[in-house]
Amino acid sequence: MILQVLSFGLFLKVLLLPGSNLAPVTEQNLEISTITTVPSNETKADFRFTGRYRLINSTNFDSFLSELGLGYFTRKLVCATQSEYIITYDRSDETHSLKTVTLLRESEIRFRDGVEFIENRIDGEKVRTVIKIDKNRWIQKQFVKPEVTIVREFDNNLINNTFTINDVVSIRVYEKVSDIDEESVQLDDEVEDY
Ligand SMILES: *[C@@H]1O[C@H](CO)[C@@H](O)[C@H](O)[C@H]1NC(C)=O
Ligand SMILES: *[C@@H]1O[C@H](CO)[C@@H](O)[C@H](O)[C@H]1NC(C)=O
Ligand SMILES: *[C@@H]1O[C@H](CO)[C@@H](O)[C@H](O)[C@H]1NC(C)=O
User: Fold this and answer.
1) Global pTM value
2) What is the span of the domain harbouring residue 152?
3) Of the four listed, 126, 143, 163, 188, which is most buried by Cβ atoms within 10 Å?
4) Residue 25 CB contacts under 8 Å (≥ 6 apart), including other chains
């Protein structure tokens, strides 16, 4: 309910902010920016995930959110909103951070490879989650019924995200828009959502 009210306010904001760089987008038909394929010379063992990425293509996300139990209005809003990932890595405790930034909300998950944590999900559920890193892929499982799997495949400057719940599969592709200097990033203390 709170999310819906909040969402409505932000929905108006989306409509009223034509100059925003987080322009509303439509599923299936996102405008794709030029994809530069810079060959990576990173080794697999030291794959560089960090950076700022922007959503460039999304398929079936509405159905995924519907299976999660999100209402119609919230789903339409989420699907029509541009989204960015900010991925950082803290060497000191080997913690990865994935921040999702949209006009609607900002959320973050922080994890260590293969170590279970509690995730505050977009639908309000708190779920046990684990992310295992396999070369250039983050394989995430949420231990709930129905089980949710999210595979994020990093390939050059793209992340190919596959969201699976029951027999519903949604693919969302993000493109890197800038690098992030690992050393300069300060993580804040709040950990929530995805
Ligand atoms: C590869 O390594 C060199 C030397 O460390 C570096 O200058 C360059 O930016 C790296 N990346 C690519 C894509 O060549
Ligand atoms: C987006 O993904 C769909 C389904 O995979 C594909 O048919 C479409 O060509 C993609 N669009 C762009 C702009 O990449
Ligand atoms: C993303 O992954 C899906 C499923 O493996 C694949 O069909 C699709 O072609 C991939 N898209 C990109 C841009 O790599």
Assistant:
1) 0.70
2) 24-32+46-184
3) 163
4) 31, 55, 58, 80, 81, 82
